[in-house]
Amino acid sequence: MIELKQLTKTFDVGKTALTAVDDVNLTIADGEIFGIIGYSGAGKSTLIRILNGLEKPTSGTVDINGQKITDIKGAELRKARQKVSMIFQHFNLLWSRTVQENIEFPLEIAGVPKAKRVEKVKELVELVGLGGRENAYPSQLSGGQKQRVGIARALANDPEVLLCDEATSALDPETTDAILDLLVDINKRLGLTIVLITHEMHVIRKICHRVAVMEGGKVVELGDVLEIFQTPKQEITKRFVAQVTESEDSSETIKHLRELYPTGELVKLVFVGEQAEQPILTQLIRKFPVEVNIVQGKVSHTQRGAYGTLILQFKGTDADIRQALDFLNQENVQAEVMAND
Amino acid sequence: MIESLFPNVDWDKMWEATLETIYMTAMSTLFTFIIGLVLGIILFLTAPKQLWANKIVNWLTGVFVNVFRSIPFIILIILLIPFTSFLIGTIRGPNAALPALIIGAAPFYARLVLIAFQEIDKGVIEAARSMGATTGTIIRKVLLPESKPALISGITVTSIALVGYTAMAGVIGAGGLGTLAFLDGFQRSRPDVVLMATILILIIVFIIQFIGDALTKKADKR
C-alpha cells in the first residue's frame, strides 16, 4: 500500500516560491493501477518523483509498504528504489548498451552475479515481447520497442511498484495501446502496483482502476474511473472526460442532430458498467409501442467495466414515450430528452 | 635521391628527435586524459542541481581551468620553470617539458569533458538514480560510456594540440623535432632540416587523427 500524507513541495523560483505539490493525501492499494491526470505544470511529475525519492518533499510523508520513503536516504534509499522502479516518457535508455545490457543495468547496480543476470534478462525479454532483439542497440529500435526495453529494465529487480512518467506520451496511438496492454498484463501477472501520470484521458480510461485529477498542485477530484467518467464534478475533469467522449454533448451537435431528425424525441442514454452489457433496448422495444432509431452511439471499455452513450430517436405518442423513459430510469440507465435550445 | 633533397639532415638525430616528440606527446596525452577527466567530472558534478552540487568547489575548479586554459603556452612554460626544476630536477629534456604540457592541456581537455557530459540526456542519469545507482556507478556506467565518442574525439584534438606544444617547448630546449628544427635548422640556416621536421610532425598528427577518428566511430552506437 502506498500512503501519501499532507505532501507538499515548493520550489524557489527567484524571489517567489512555486508550490508544485500542495497538500496531497492519497492511498493507493496493492495491485491497483492508479492514474494521475493533469495538464503540464499541474505538479504530477514532481509528485511521482517524490514517490521514489528523486525529489524530497518540503513537508509530508510517503509510505510504501511500510517504509517511509521520505525519511530515508543514502544506501537505504538506493535499496528502496530497486523496489519502486520507473519508466519514462523518453525511455532514457543507455544508447551505448544493447537491449540485453540495458536490461542488465539495474541488476548490475543491485550486485546480481553475471550468470543470474543473463537468466533474468532472458526471462524479461520474453515477457515484454522483444525475443530476438537482445543484441540490438536502442538506435535500432522503434519507440514502442524502446519502451518495452524500459519496462523490462524497470521489472528487473522484481519491484513492488512501477511508476510510469508519461510512458506513452511519445508514442503513436497504436503503439500506445500495445504498451498499455502490456502494462495491464504485467499488473495482472505480477500483481504489481502501477502508478502512472498522464495528460491523456484515453490512457486513464484504458487501464486505470482509479484516478486522481490534479490542478495547481492539488488533487481536485479522486475516484473510480467509471464514476469519474459518469459524473465528473470539476470543470477540469469534465474537460478531460470530453477528450474521449467527443463532442456529443455540445449544443452545436444537438442542433445538428435535431436538423437531421426533426420528428419524435431525441433521447440520450448513458450506460455504465453492467447495464452496458444487458439487452435493455430489446426489452424496451418489446414492451412499448415506440419506434426506436439509433442516431449516434459509442461504448468504451475501462478496467472497471463498459461506459457508453447512445442517442436514440423515439417516435410514438407522448404517453408511450414517457412510459418508455420511465422504464429506462427504473433500469438505472440515465435517460434524458435532448432539449432543443 | 632523398639524401640530395635533404643534404644537411642527420637521420640518426632526426629519428631520435621524432621518438622524443612521440614520447612527450604520448606521456602528456596520458596525463592530460586522466587529469582532464577528473577535473571534468568535478566541474560537471559540482555544478548547480547536480549530484555533488557545491558552489565553492565548482567555482575554484572553474577558475583554475579558465586561468590555465587562457595563458599562452609559451608564457606558461616560462612561468612554470621554477615548478619544473623543483619537480623534475632539470629544465632541459623531454621530461622537463611534461609539467608545462600537462598543465597547459589538461584544463583544455577538462572543458571538452564537461561539454561531453553536458550533452548526455539528463533523463538517463535520472533513470540510473531511480534504479538506486550510487554516484560512482553513475560516473563509471553512465557518464563515461555515454560520452565515450566525445571523450575520444576530445582527446584526439587535445593530443594534436600537444604535438604543437611539444614543438614550442623545443624553444626552451625540451628536445624533440621542435628543438631540432629551431637549433639545427633555423639557427644554422638549413631549411631542409626544418622541412623534414615539419613533414615528420605532420605524419604524427595524421596518424593521431586517423586513430582518433577510427576509435570515435567504433564507440558511437547512436
Structural overview:
The complex is a heterodimer of chains A (341) and B (222). Chain A is 37% helix and 30% strand. Chain A is α/β, with parallel strands linked by helices and 341 residues long. Chain A has 2 domains: 2-244, Rossmann fold, CATH 3.40.50; 251-337, 2-Layer Sandwich (Alpha-Beta Plaits). In chain A, the strands form 3 sheets. A 6-stranded mixed β-sheet of chain A has the order 6-7-8-3-9-10, sandwiched between helices. Chain A has a 4-stranded antiparallel β-sheet with strand order 2-1-4-5. In chain A, strands 12-13-11-14 form a 4-stranded antiparallel β-sheet. In chain A, strand 9 and strand 10 (218-224) form a beta hairpin. The longest helix of chain A is centred in the middle third of the chain and has 18 residues, at 173-190. The radius of gyration of chain A is 24 Å and the shape is elongated. Chain B contains 11 helices and no strands. By secondary structure, chain B is mostly helical. In chain B, helix 2 packs across helix 10 and helix 7 (122-130) runs antiparallel to helix 8. Chain B has a single domain (7-217), classed as MetI-like (MetI-like fold, Orthogonal Bundle). Chains A and B meet through helix 2, strand 6 and helix 3 of A and helix 7 and helix 8 of B.
